[in-house]
Amino acid sequence: METGGLRKVELRQLEYFVEVSRLKSFTHAAESLHVSQPSISNSLNKLEEELGVKLLDRTTKSVSLTLKGEIFHSRITEILSEMNQAIVEINELDTGVVKIGLPPMIGAQMFPNVFMGFKEKFTNIEFEVTEKGSVAIKNLIENGELEMGFIILPESSEQLEMVPLVEDQLVICVPRNHILHSKKSLQCNDLIKEKFIMLTEEYVHHNALLKYCFPSSIKPNIIFTSDKVETVKAMVANGLGLSLLMDMYVKDHRDIVAIPLKKRLNINIGLAWKKGRVLSNDCQMVIAFIREYFCTEQQNRKV
Question: Which Gene3D superfamilies does this one have (predicted)?
């Protein structure tokens, strides 16, 4: 096969190939792509001729990938995904809008002052905010749906650039009249018989309770889960159960006592964005401002 023939492969042929592979049917692929079935069949025949290999096994009832087809499909889906992401990125450059993720607890405690300071300096840049837990925001950043986000940072990441900004800890939250309220710290034995009101798995807190507060052989008694932080906090305050939340978020609550774990659950809150992503000038200005803002905050606290 002459490598020069690859120049004749068209993007449309690759898209047809991926859709036929996904649906395992020329008919269904044609319906999905709103083209005629003969158009897809002819395009894929030409693609196989250009490559000099058989990509698809065709029968009257089904279509399946050959071994070489599977290899080709794996690489082509990656290429098409990268190309689509590149199109999204260049279309988002300097639109005056920055898509940012913001967990509710972090948003309530940290973002208002940052936003106010930023808008005083950059009046022409707007924020399109998505409020979800850190786990969900991390996934949205990695998938290219958000440009950046404030999150509880993982220990390491192959996909994210991360800037630590603030240190905090996760604490057990108990109603003020609870039998545990006077404890200086808590461990698993204190919690085994307790009921828990927890955030959903899109929050770091959910997995942290399972991983760090209980051994794998013991499951916490989670009686209610919610993706609304205020709901969880209100239910704890009303004596319906305990929870695991950020210290900064509950430490001044009059009806909740925040108790650290004996083995502290320290966290880093920071800004994250996808490695290798082309950032707009607007995004770069946001990152630079946030770095400077929190650096100044730390210096002021030391004075």
Answer: 3.40.190.290, Winged helix-like DNA-binding domain superfamily/Winged helix DNA-binding domain
Statement: residue 40 has pLDDT above 50: yes
Q: Whose CA is closest to 15, among 97, 103, 63, 83?
A: 83
Give the side-chain half-sphere CA count within 13 A for 211: 8
95 pLDDT tier (thresholds 50, 70, 90): low
Per-domain boundaries in the chain:
3-87, 97-166+269-302, 167-267
Report the 10 Å Cβ neighbour count for 70: 12
Mention every residue, 6+ apart, whose C-beta is less than 8 A from residue 125.
96, 97, 98, 118, 282, 285, 286
| DSSP3 helix / strand / coil % (the chain, rounded to 5) | 50, 25, 30
Identify the CATH number of the domain defined by range 97-166+269-302. Answer: 3.40.190.10
Assigned CATH topology for domain 3-87: Arc Repressor Mutant, subunit A (1.10.10)
The number of C-alpha atoms within 13 Å of 32 and in the hemisphere containing its C-beta is: 16
Residue type, 251: K
Interval 48-76: pLDDT, tens: 988 989 999 988 778 999 999 999 999 99
pLDDT at site 62: 81
157: CB partners within 8 A, 6+ apart: 138, 272
DSSP state of 242: B
- pLDDT tens figures, 244-271: 999 999 988 999 999 999 999 999 999 9
Return d(Cα 46, Cα 89) in angstroms, integer: 32
Is the CB of residue 201 less than 8 Å from the CB of residue 175?
A: no
Q: How far apart are CA 277 and CA 258, in angstroms?
A: 39
β pairing state of 126-130 and 97-101: parallel
